[in-house]
What does this fold into?
Amino acid sequence: MEGERYERETLIKLDDLSKVYHENPVFSRINCEISRGDFICVVGPSGSGKTTLLRCLLGVEKISSGFIYQESDGIRFTYVPQQPTLLPWRSALENVVSGIFPGVSDPKAQALEILKLVGLVGKENALPRQLSGGMQQRVSFARALASAPDIVFMDEPFSALDEMRRAELGRLVFDLWQRSGVTFVMNTHSIEDASILSTKVWVMTPAKDRTGGASLRVLDTWPRTESFDSRKASDSQATVRAAIEREISVVAA
Ligand code: ADP
Ligand code: MG
It folds into this structure.
């Protein structure tokens, strides 16, 4: 797998990171890191601060205290939002071209290649409104990968889809991740998704009394080379699931 030799290279380190909104602590003193090749799933109940944490990592939200270190220069990242935000007057292909890093010799050919990867051959000239929600989200993934990022951040990218499409896209995202060697960080409220897709799970656990902010615990789940099917078939999936649930129930208690 490409990128395997970089697996332990730290890209981003969070050091005692805290966020407070108008005196309401969202999360407090988070310590963790993102390494190259990780697939990190961030889980936690609604309101636990997943989106806020992602926004801090993306640099669009101010942090209140602590540090976010980029361990090497020029780390590039992209973002896949909950709802696809494609340019409505541009075709699927043009939307992907718009994500391609400037200077690429044949952006159209490259965009076509990526559309192929996400299973949209034959749809390149369709406008977003002519595509289903699941297909639009595929274009969104393609656009995010087009810029050859180091990290793709995703905020509940399957939440607007029905169960069939969710399962399909989960598998697709997994394949894209394993093939590309790109690092993925995905917010999800699905323990099922987290227990199959991840190499690590960050569990956001709100403080019991709500006066403090949420804390974050890291669980190591799967080695990156383990295939989707063997993860699904393995007894270990139940173990991973139980470990996440145990962590979350600590919160509920
Ligand atoms: P999650 O994504 O896990 O559902 P959020 O990060 O959206 O959680 O929200 C975490 C907490 O921060 C919630 O209590 C929410 O009300 C609060 N919050 C989020 N955005 C803002 C904001 N712009 N101003 C004030 N409070 C906010
Ligand atoms: Mg959210």
